[in-house]
Amino acid sequence: MxxxxxxxxxxxxxxxxxxxxxxxxxxxxxxLKGCPLRCRWCSNPESQDPKPExxxxxxxxxxxxxxxxxxxxxxxxxxxxxxxDRDKCIRCGACAEACPTDAxxxxxxxxxxNQVLQEVRKDATHYRRSGGGITLSGGEPLMQSDFAxxxxxxxxxxxWNTAMETTGFTTPEIIADxxxxxxxxxxxxxxxxxxxxxxxxxVDNRIILENAIRTAMTSKSVVVRxxxxxxxxxxxxxxxxxxNFAKMLPGVETVHLLGYHSYGENKYGLLNRAYPMGDTPxxxxxxxxxxxxxxxxxxxxxxxxx
Length: 306
Ligand SMILES: C[S@@+](CC[C@H](N)C(=O)[O-])C[C@H]1O[C@@H](n2cnc3c(N)ncnc32)[C@H](O)[C@@H]1O
Ligand code: SF4
Description:
Blueprint: E1 9-19, E2 27-32, E3 53-56, H1 67-70, H2 94-98, E4 104-107, E5 109-112, H3 113-120, H4 124-130, E6 133-137, H5 145-157, E7 161-166, H6 172-178, E8 184-188, H7 194-201, H8 206-218, E9 221-228, H9 236-247, E10 254-259, H10 265-270, H11 288-297, E11 301-304
Parallel strand pairs: 2-6, 6-7, 7-8, 8-9, 9-10, 10-11
Antiparallel strand pairs: 1-2, 1-5, 3-4
The structure holds S-adenosylmethionine and iron/sulfur cluster (SF4).
Iron/sulfur cluster binds next to loops.
């Protein structure tokens, strides 16, 4: 195996400690920026653009104007305080540094594998006791495949367990390159019907379904995950289609059903974007048990949440 490149850089938008979801034991979740999909319900809209970007919180802005002179490309407006011309913005973050009230903040920063390791190491004693480790999420972690691979290799060298939340929309070469370093793959399948998938995520699902087979053949443990979204895949037929696909993946025994929630809605506002789900209510709690039964009737284990 090639030596680990600890200087490999990636763009990280969050590191969450002490998670008891998204893999076994206590975990640190490292969120990588960039995603080729645009799921209408995505709870992490700040993950989608690969580069760092600005959040603007109108209610915190005191209109002091300190952001205006520091922007090197005049992407902010004197007449309309807090307005960010996102096509002009070069993501340097100078305005966020100048902002005294954090009305402007930057999501995403460049980190090396070594810098992420130093952060993750703070939880290492918990990993040992609980069988936990690191989970890469995003965004789509495979969009920064060199960074993901080097970080996973470095975690394994420390003896830490690794997991990845992915939708597998990438090339077969990247699956072969990265997935052998993942102990637990949490593989999202959002819809089997190609038209439904395209309309709600913006991409064709053929490559995802093909890569699901490749992942199942490469990874040590794979769980299929389904965000259950009203009007998209919340019918017994749609869940049965996903269950039947999961069932034929080698080694897959478990499906997680995640009910749609709108927790990410406010972040669309901070990015000056409209929320694509409008006022669609969260999936009612009682919608999931019947769908769990559908999965179990196929001979698979099913867990609500993940
Ligand atoms: C933000 S995604 C990142 C990983 C990868 N891009 C993916 O979609 O699998 C992490 C998990 O959150 C789920 N998720 C995203 N938005 C959600 C929402 N509004 N309600 C419930 N689950 C959601 C995804 O389906 C996925 O299982
Ligand atoms: S694949 Fe994941 S990160 Fe990408 S848009 Fe969909 S939910 Fe968001």
